[in-house]
Structures are given as C-alpha cells and as structure tokens.
Amino acid sequence: MKNQIKKIALLTSGGDAPGMNASIRSVVRACVFHNIIPVGVYKGYDGLIEGRFEEMNARSVKGIINKGGTILKTARSEKFKSKAGRYEAYKSIKENKIDGLIVIGGDGTFTGGLIFSEENKFPVIGIPATIDNDIFGTSHTIGFDSATNTVMNAIDKIRDTASSHNRLFFVEVMGRDAGHIALNTGVAGGAEEILIPEENLGLDRLIQSLKRSEKTGKSSSIVVVAEGDKTGENVFHLKEYVEKHLSNYDARVAVLGHMQRGGTPTCFDRVLASRLGVYAVESMISKKDGNMVGLQNNKVVLTPLKKAIKGVTKINKELLKVSDIMSI
Ligand code: F6P
C-alpha cells in the first residue's frame, strides 16, 4: 500500500520516565527509515498549541538512548483540556502539514490525544511511558523497569542503616494511584510489609504483622508504602501510629520522590522503547491509528486508545502472596 504519511509529529507529555528518550530516538529513526519527516514538538501539548516544532533527523537523536528525561521536554497542559486550546493545536498541525501525531506518555496523555483525534479526525498513536505501569493493554510501560531498579537500590541502602540502628523504615514510593512499583520493589527489597492503594488491610493488621516480625527476632524492618496507599493518612502518620503502639520500634521515614523518575534507563526499557517506537510508526503508516502500542507476552500489540484509557491494571495477586510468604 502506498504510504501517504509524509510528516509525523511526536511529543512527550505527563510525568517523564527513563526510556522516553529511547522512544523518541526510535520514532525518529523509524520515520527516517520509512522516508517520513519526523517533527519534534517541544513541551508536550502546550508546544503543540504554540507551534514549537522542529524537524528532526537520524542524527538529532544521537547519544540519547542512555539518557533519562526527555529532550523534547514535557508538561501537563491545562490549555489542551479546552476545545479552544485543541483547536489552536490543530491549526498548528495543519500549518506545518503534519499527517500524524505520536504521543508518548501515560493515561492523561492518551486522553488528550484521543479527544484531539476524534475532534479533528486526525491520526494519533500512543506509546505508553510512565513509571507507574498503570496503563491497560501493556504488561510494561516504558520507565517502570528503570524506576523499580532505582527504588530497589535505594531500599538496599536504607536497609544498611536500618539494620545498623535496629530501626523500622517506612519507604514511600511513587505510583499516583497504583501499587505496582511498591509491590515489585517490596518483594525485591525484602520488605516486611507492602502497603498499596489496591488493598487496605488496616492499621491493626500492620501492628500485628510488625509484632510478629519482632517475635521472630527481626531487629529492623522495611515497610514499602505506595504514595496512594490509604492505610494511614500518610507515611508520617503511619510512623507515629506504629511508634505509639509498638514502643520498642524506633521508626524513620524515607520519601524517595522524584529521583524515581530519573537515571539512565535499563536495558529492558531501552529495548521496549525501541520496539514500541518502530511499531508506532509502522502502525501509523498502515493506518492503524487510534491505538496504543504495547507489550503482551513479549509481543508488540495494539490496544484501542479508548480501552487503554478506560481499562484498569490489576495488581498481581500471586506476587502479593509471595510477599506475604517471604515476610514470615
Ligand atoms: O505519573 C507518574 C508520577 O511520577 C506519579 O507516580 C506521581 O504521583 C506523579 O507523577 C508526580 O507528578 P509531578 O511530577 O507533577 O509531581
């Protein structure tokens, strides 16, 4: 089939994630390979509205596969939430003779992309990139593997000082509404307890579990808490509650914060980003827009953006069971 796509714009939006640059590199080089002009849009949807476009080539993306962050910058655009803002963006797209748009980000990014696509009957394809791994239709989002390794290494360091002082540490990790980072890094970091938004077993069960750990001779403990967890009011409240009810515990809090979003992407994330970038461009060429590219059973697949946005990722119950057994 003759390719009618001559120019593809690409942007990154929402919270940045390690591997975003690898996906930018892949989209750009796949475009060049297919004789399509890649056009980078700076600062996400705000840049689309402002027409902050720059034609790119294979050399524009040299030396970035191993860099965290995004060379195209990112933003959470309030303006793009309005029809007027999206109309400005569409005018920019038409003025620059763009034939398709690839958006790299999370569910908020895809929501904006889908509305824009439907309003203007314009081809949009999504590439899932967020450390939260909370996008339906893919086993892995770009950035999740890198973030979990960053968190695991931080927990290992915290465990050194926790065991030196016989302390209990509450380690808060990111994951706005999802406990995937907390669950995986809790198991990998050997946490005694993992608190996630998907499962609230209550403060008393936490106390019982810590009492049991103490009885089995544990002199220090790590509790990994997802930022969206609702067991307590927040991680500091959890610390106070435990110190009040378990006088033997000397507790501290470590909030890992935005360092989880940085750092060089892992091999897994670089390969994932490279595969999804190529698949996004080739799906655009074969007019399979309106979809998100993703990984299922290690195969690249398409999921309608509508489903990717509405779908809810499930917490891995088998992993929850493993974490309970490991903390005996
Ligand atoms: O969506 C990714 C994420 O890192 C969440 O885990 C976190 O809650 C949020 O972004 C933080 O947003 P911001 O960078 O705007 O503070």
How would you characterize this protein structure?
- The chain is built from 11 helices and 11 strands.
- It has helices at residues 20-33, 44-50, 83-95, 107-120, 144-165, 180-188, 203-215, 235-245, 267-285, 305-310, 317-326; strands spanning 7-12, 37-41, 53-55, 100-105, 124-128, 168-173, 193-195, 221-226, 251-255, 291-296, 299-304.
- The strands form 2 sheets. The protein has a 7-stranded mixed sheet, with helices on both faces. The protein has a 4-stranded parallel sheet with strand order 7-8-6-9, with helices on both faces.
- A hairpin with a 2-residue loop joins strand 10 and strand 11.
- The longest helix has 22 residues, at 144-165.
- It is elongated, with a radius of gyration of 22 Å.
- It starts with 6 loop residues before the first strand and ends with a helix.
What is the structure about, briefly put?
This protein is of the alpha/beta class.
Chain-wise SSE layout:
Blueprint: E1 7-12, H1 20-33, E2 37-41, H2 44-50, E3 53-55, H3 83-95, E4 100-105, H4 107-120, E5 124-128, H5 144-165, E6 168-173, H6 180-188, E7 193-195, H7 203-215, E8 221-226, H8 235-245, E9 251-255, H9 267-285, E10 291-296, E11 299-304, H10 305-310, H11 317-326
Parallel strand pairs: 1-2, 1-4, 4-5, 5-10, 6-8, 6-9, 7-8
Antiparallel strand pairs: 2-3, 10-11
Helix pairs in contact: 1-9, 2-3, 5-6, 6-11
This protein binds 6-O-phosphono-beta-D-fructofuranose.
6-O-phosphono-beta-D-fructofuranose binds at residues 15, 106, 130-132, 174-176, 227, 261.
